[in-house]
C-alpha cells in the first residue's frame, strides 16, 4: 500500500562492496577527537607552557579567588540578605500541568479507570520526583485547563484552583494529601522498598505550617470535612461558571470515591505490613503493641 | 564518499584497496530471491515497522560438510539492517578495551624514595650547586615529579543504548558484507577439530569463525572440537560483544541465538527509563 523503504538504505548496499569492517578499520567521526595540547612540548606547547611572562602568573602564586588587589571585593561589598536562607530546607513540589496529564492519559501511560496516585505518575514516567532533594510531591498546575477532558480520581500534594476546577468540571475528583519524606520515597519507588523487607511505615501528619492547607476544603485537603468539600465544589463551579456534574450517578462512582486513610501510603496495604515479592506473600503484625502503634 | 556516486554499487575511482584483501574463491552470495522455493523456517517474533520489511538469509546445517541449504529465515530489520555507523563501533570497541583496564604503573615521588632527608652539603662555600636533598627529581636516583601514581582505573560506562546500538550495527554489517551465517543447531557428527576446519574451508567462510548459541548448555562435540582450535570459538549469546565480532571474520548464529538476540536487542527500543536498576523486578515493563 505505502512505499516500503529498504531497511538500512543505501549505506548497506555500499557496504557490500567495501572491505570488511575489522578492528583495524574503525575510526571516530572526523572532527570529534581534538588533539590535546601537550604542555612543555614542541614549538607551541613549550617555552613558557602557556603560563605567561614572569610574575605571579608564571610562578603560580596568584592570590585567592575573589581578591581584587586590595579593593573591597564584590562578595564583601554587597550587603547580606536572606534571599537563599534556608533554601535547602524549603519544600519543593514538582509541577504537573494538565497538558502533561492529558498527554499521558492519551498515550496510555496513565490509566484513568484506576485512582491516579503519585506511584502511577512515576511508573508512567510522567514526573520525576527526588525525595532526597526536598521534593515533597507533585503540584497540579492549571496550564492546559482549556483542553483537559478526562474524568480522573487524582491525588496530588498541592493543586491550584484552576486545576481543581478543570478536573471537577470533567466529573473527576482531586484530593491533596501530605507525604513525609520517608513515605514519599516509599511511594515513588515501592519495589526497592519491598525488597528491603521493612514494614510499610505509617504516613506522618503534616507539620504545623501545612496543617491549615490540608484542613481547608478549598484545597480539597485530605484532612478537611467532606461536607465542606462538597460545598466548596459547588462554590467553585459557580465561580468558574460550569455545571457541576453529579458523580454519585456515575458508573465509576466506586473508583472515583476511593480515598486513602490519612495514615495509609498504598491503596489496599496498611502500615505495618511486610510485602514479600519473591514469594508473593504479605506478612501482617500480630503483636498488640505493634498493632496499637500502627493503628493509631 | 556518497555524494560522488553515480550508481549505487560503484566505488569511487581513487579508492585504493590492496589486492590480497579479497578471497577470490569466496564468491559473494546474492541475497535470497523473493520467489525462492525454500521454506521460511522462522518469521520475526516482534512486530516489524510498517515502512520496513524483514531481511532474509539462508539457514545452513553443520551436520554434513557439503553446503545444503535447509531454508530461509526472516531477520528483524531494526537489529540486522540498521544503518552502519563506524564511529559507534569505534566508541564501543574503545570502551570494551578500556573500562576493564587498571594500570598498575606506579613511581615514587621524592618524598617516597628511600633517603634524601639531609641537606647533602652546606648551602654556600663548597663550590658545588645548591641542593636540599639527594632524591630531588633533578638527581640521578631521585623521585619522579609527574609520573604515574598508583593503580589508575579507566572505568567508564557508555550509555546502555549506545552499547546496544553497537551490537546491532555489528550484526547488520556482518550480514551486509556476507559474513553472517545462520545454522539450525550446533550438532556436529564428530568431535574432531579437522571436520570443522574442512567444513569452513569447503564453504569458503573465512579464516576465523565465531559460533554463537543461545543458552549455557552447548553440545559436547562442538565444545571439544573448538577447544584446541585458535581461530574457531564458541560462545553463548549473552557473551556476544562487538570486539569478538570484529576480531573474527565470520559470525555463525543458531536459530535460537537469533531469537534471543532479537528479543534482547529490540527490548531497548521500547522500554521506559529505569527508575531503579533493571535487575530488580518491574511489573509493567515487559
TrEMBL record, chain A:
One of its GO terms (cellular component) is mitochondrial large ribosomal subunit. It is found in: Mitochondrion. GO terms for molecular function: structural constituent of ribosome. SUPFAM superfamilies: Ribosomal proteins L15p and L18e. Residues 17-71 are annotated as: Disordered. Residues 95-175 form the Large ribosomal subunit protein uL15/eL18 domain. GO terms for biological process: translation. InterPro entries: Ribosomal_uL15, Ribosomal_uL15/eL18, Ribosomal_uL15/eL18_sf, Ribosomal_uL15_bac-type. NCBIfam families: rplO_bact. This is Large ribosomal subunit protein uL15m.
From TrEMBL, chain B:
Residues 116-133 have a biased composition (Basic residues). GO terms for molecular function: structural constituent of ribosome. Its main location: mitochondrion. One of its GO terms (biological process) is translation. Keywords: Mitochondrion, Ribonucleoprotein, Ribosomal protein. The keyword Transport does not apply. Gene3D superfamilies: 3.40.1370.10. It comes from the Eukaryota. Pfam families: Ribosomal_L4 (PF00573). It is found in: Mitochondrion. InterPro entries: Ribosomal_uL4 (IPR002136), Ribosomal_uL4-like (IPR013005), Ribosomal_uL4_dom_sf (IPR023574). GO terms for cellular component: mitochondrial inner membrane; ribonucleoprotein complex; ribosome. Residues 108-142 are annotated as: Disordered. The keyword Ribonucleoprotein applies. PANTHER family: 50S RIBOSOMAL PROTEIN L4 (PTHR10746), LARGE RIBOSOMAL SUBUNIT PROTEIN UL4M (PTHR10746:SF6). Belongs to the universal ribosomal protein uL4 family. This is Large ribosomal subunit protein uL4m. The lineage of its organism: Eukaryota, Metazoa, Chordata, Craniata, Vertebrata.
